[in-house]
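User: Hi! I'm working on a homework problem where we have to compare a predicted structure to a textbook description. Could you give me the structure for the chain below?
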Amino acid sequence: MSTGTAVKEIPGATPELFPMSSRVISLNELPKRGFSPAPEVEHNGAAAPQTTTPAESEPKPPQSTGHRSRKPLLIGLPILLVVATTVGFWLHYAAQFVETDNAFIEADVHPVSSRVAGNIQSVLVEDNQKVKAGEPVAQLDPRDYEMKLQSARTALEQAAAQIPQAEAALAQAQATSAQTEAQVNASAAQLEKFRLDFERAQKLRNLSGKAISDQDFDATKAAYVAAQASHASTQAARQAGEAGVKTAEANLAVAKAGQHHAQAAVSDAELQLSYTIVRAPAAGTVGKRTLQVGQQIQPGQALLAVVSPDHWLVANFKENQLATMKAGQPVEIKIDAIKGQRFEGRVESFAPGTGAKFSLLPPDNATGNFTKIVQRVPVKIIFDHNANTEANQDRIAPGLSAIATVKVK
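Assistant: Happy to help. Predicted structure tokens:
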């Protein structure tokens, strides 16, 4: 260019922006005109590091946020009020109610077993069937026990037939004893007569002149001795008759005892025969039925179970929850298996020990290192008999989990 003014070439600028007649523009004026300076190029072709001006490096002053700082306060205040209300309500609730979810439904479960051995002939109930107390649930083959009963009845008839014989023998012995008693009395009278005759003969012989001959005296004496022997014989016969009466009485007693024994055997055979019909020990619902037709069972073998319809709740409360609890307090019961239903009950009694004390292996805190563990005490809660309980009677089963809430105030 042949101009009077020297123009310095600016990298990145087009010729149209800088006419020939313009003055020289320094690099410091480019940013004011809207141009950014091109990066400086080193001699080896790499870009030179850019430098920032002090104005650009200074932080901008913060803007005023007075209206924004009030928003967290306005939002946090309602939350704080809600939390305080919730905590207050919970403290008020905790002061009036004691609750635990460590609770289970309990009921009497009556095991049914046979009292005699035998073969199952028929099963008379099904699973989950309701039965009454004494209702037959199974029938055993009764033929063996019927034979035993017949044999016992035959033995009873034989024992009963021996009683008249013993009674007849007793009557005969008594008659014989009476006869010997009469003979004793007769011999006693004869003995007294011969004694008197002998005494008179002695007096006559002692008189002077011998008023009685020796022959008559000897005859009187011999008759007296014979009377004594006869009397002794009748007395022995009387004793034998009395012994015979006692023997006959003993035989009669034995016959009667035999009859009683035979009667007891008959009663036992009848009882054993009645055991061939297995009956429900109580009213309830049949469960856990294991017997089948044709099964050979033994006495005491579990066949099924009858669950009683009377239920109660065992709630295991912590020991620090029992301070305000007492018998008779109302309880609200919620059963996990029955959603949306609430049952009413009341505290009946407290267990005499903790659950750990009645466990199979109770802990011994006197040995080793001691770590205090909060114990739980079983509390028996009975259901109130109302319409809700009766309507859900079939759904309340032993073993179900529940939540018990006791109103202590």
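For your comparison, note the following. Helices lie at 54-57, 70-96, 143-206, 214-274, 387-391. The chain is about 40% helix and 20% strand. Good luck with the assignment!
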